[in-house]
Amino acid sequence: MNYGVINLKRIDEDAEIICKCIGLGKYGTAKEMIIETAIAETALGQIEDKTVGAGMGLTQFDELPFNDIRNRCKKLQPQILKDLHIDISLVNWDDLRYNQFLALLFTRLLYWLKGDPIPETIEERAAYWKLHYNTKLGKGTIEHYLEMNKIYGVKIN
Known about the structure:
This protein is mainly α. The chain is built from seven helices and no strands.
């Protein structure tokens, strides 16, 4: 495994804890969204990233959105500190490299800031990921998201 991933079960537990703090979203699918994002980006840590300075950690988080999110999530800082015992203002981008919890946390924060509800179905979430996470500049495709999630165990309707 890569990115500090030791136990795949722990990813599910971490996502649950994070979403209990920040919220599961309108349709209760935030946990699925952040885990599916980790699958699409790194196959839950099974695909080694050989680049330096590009996306960081389990969810391949880029530096620009990381800094933006850290600065814009001041409203959630007290809740995150209380529930998760993390002062996000002290987290650095490089901290995500080998810390799956922080990578999942910042991924959830990114989706939380978007304002659009996280969709109910995986097909809709694939399009949501492309729009909000991978963006039009990213190389990822909706098909890639769905295929990675199919290969690594997520049920595709």
